[in-house]
Amino acid sequence: MTTVPLAARLTRVQGPLFFPVTAYGPDGSIDLGACRAHVESGVDAGAAAVFVCCGTGEFHALTPDEYGRCVATAVAAADGEVPVIAGVGYGTALAARYARTAEAAGADGLLALPPYLVLADQAGLLRHYTALAASTCLELIVYQRDNALFAPPTVAELARTDGIIGLKDGHGDLDLMQRIVTAVRRDAPGQDFLYFNGLPTAELTGPAYRGVGITLYSSAAFAFVPDIALAFHRALATGDDKTAARLLDGFFAPLAALRDLGRGYAVSLVKAGVRLEGLDVGGVRPPLSEPDPAHVDALAELIGQGRALLAELA
């Protein structure tokens, strides 16, 4: 860990945010060697940060012991080059327990996933996240999606809470996000509060989120085609709209369409992509299922098309 604030570290390196998969061996147990190789390759490729044991990393399927070992492995693999943020979730007490485990494993921060199952009001959500922030010395990012949707005044209150440094949006309502950004700017002035585009295949909505001032985003594609993901990130960051549009039309839009063909493909299709690129990370744990073989073949073809497009653009 480092004394540099997490917000500064997350914006210091220009690159996509890397959400590695969790690797399993043939017997279904955690394969820490493959986990480490996967994280190391992402860091070497230019990831700005590693978000371990989150949605793509099947946080829901890991035991507490497996979780701690996965986080420690990611920390060792990153070796201080970029920050490692660990997913935490479930109810407040369990989320705090996972936070302590992540802290002991050397994580630099936390991504707070939505509370398990319940539909809470704004006051309840605020109590949950402020209690979680108070339970750990690690700074945390709140993940907005599903049953954790926030009114702008609630986010402003979160921004004023010690230890909460940002909001990752997986909901996709840009009108709401603009109102949130405005509320935080007005009601929590001086806070170095970060915003992240956390939609699946976030590249597809990257230009729209930039219009709201949100430039940080998670890249599922980076887990298996970091070269294509980085080319798009550079194009978007430098205002190369023509290249960004070519990559959107020729790779990311077809990838999103393929992802939408099956439930759980935001995880299982990414793992299939990692396997196609030569690293055996195993399958997914229940309740997720493996993608249709025809869809894996289509992914392999799409990867080839994406690389051909990169060659054209070079």
From TrEMBL:
As its record notes, the protein acts as a catalyst of: 5-dehydro-4-deoxy-D-glucarate + H(+) = 2,5-dioxopentanoate + CO2 + H2O
Keywords assigned by UniProt? Answer: Lyase
Pfam families referenced in this protein's UniProt entry, alphabetically: DHDPS
Work out whether the entry's keyword set contains Lipoprotein. no
Gene3D superfamilies with a match to the protein in the record: Aldolase class I
Q: Record's superkingdom?
A: Bacteria
Say yes or no: keyword Lyase present: yes
EC nos:
4.2.1.41
Q: Give, as in the UniProt entry, the pathway in which the protein acts.
A: Carbohydrate acid metabolism; D-glucarate degradation; 2,5-dioxopentanoate from D-glucarate: step 2/2
State the NCBIfam families in the record: PRK03620.1
The Swiss-Prot or TrEMBL record describes its family as follows: Belongs to the DapA family.
Q: What is this protein called?
A: Probable 5-dehydro-4-deoxyglucarate dehydratase
The organism is Streptomyces katsurahamanus
